[in-house]
Specification:
- This is Fatty acid repression mutant protein (Predicted oxidoreductase) (FMR2).
- It comes from Eupransor demetentiae.
- It holds the Pfam family Nitroreductase.
- The chain has about 200 residues and is α+β, with helices and mostly antiparallel strands.
- The protein has a single domain, classed as NADH Oxidase (3-Layer(aba) Sandwich), CATH 3.40.109.
- The chain contains eight helices and five strands.
- Strands 1, 2, 3, 4 and 5 form a five-stranded antiparallel β-sheet that branches.
- The protein is globular.
- The two termini are about 30 Å apart.
Length: about 200
């Protein structure tokens, strides 16, 4: 499979199941391999992850539902949200939580004051590259996933439940599992809008 073919295979999957052939340990190894080679500014390696499976995975989405229920505008709105959480996320095999270790960012800001205003942005780029690297790895191995952002709503609960260091800032949640339904249609903007060639 070429890289472009792999990119086309990588899609947001919202019908997840828990029928994976890989063990939690194999998935953890897969994630580590992808993260190890993901580039970051000045090789800062500021990305941290928790790979949740089993009860930890289910607990994450139960906590998320509790928080969403507390802020829901109506019972009807919450019912739709709960159906999505249960069917697209909690029903999967696990979740990868992505964090930025802010102590790394702070250390770089102090060590290189001329670039201090850039290091947070660069750490966000590292999160994006890392999530994409894991997403491609999952796609290559037939694992469905999507990238979610229930932070900062769930930050305090996640930190308390999973003993997250104070310097780790939650940036994304990636539920994963067996693919139980196809990805939706994807629209593309014109290449002429996306890029220009200058000679």
């Amino acid at each position: 499979m070429t890289f472009n073919e792999l990119q086309k295979k990588r899609r947001s999957i919202y019908q997840l199941g828990d029928k994976l052939t890989q063990t939690p340990e194999e998935i953890h190894h897969m994630v580590n391999e992808a993260l190890r080679e993901a580039p970051s500014a000045m090789n800062s390696q500021s990305v941290r992850v928790l790979v949740l499976t089993g009860d930890s995975h289910k607990k994450l989405w139960d906590m998320t539902l509790d928080r969403l229920k507390a802020v829901a505008k109506s019972e009807e709105a919450f019912a739709k949200t709960a159906a999505k959480i249960n069917g697209a996320f909690k029903s999967g095999f696990g979740t990868v939580l992505y964090f930025t270790d802010t102590s790394v960012v702070t250390d770089l800001e102090e060590a290189f004051p001329a670039y201090a205003d850039n290091f947070y942005d660069w750490s966000e780029q590292a999160i994006g590259i890392s999530t994409y690297a894991v997403w491609l790895t999952f796609a290559e191995n037939g694992i469905g996933t999507s990238n979610q952002h229930y932070n900062p709503l769930i930050d305090a609960d996640v930190a308390r439940e999973f003993d997250v260091p104070d310097t780790w800032k939650l940036r994304a949640e990636m539920p994963f599992g067996s693919i139980e339904g196809p990805a939706g249609e994807k629209d593309y903007i014109e290449d002429s809008v996306r890029s220009r060639l200058l000679k």
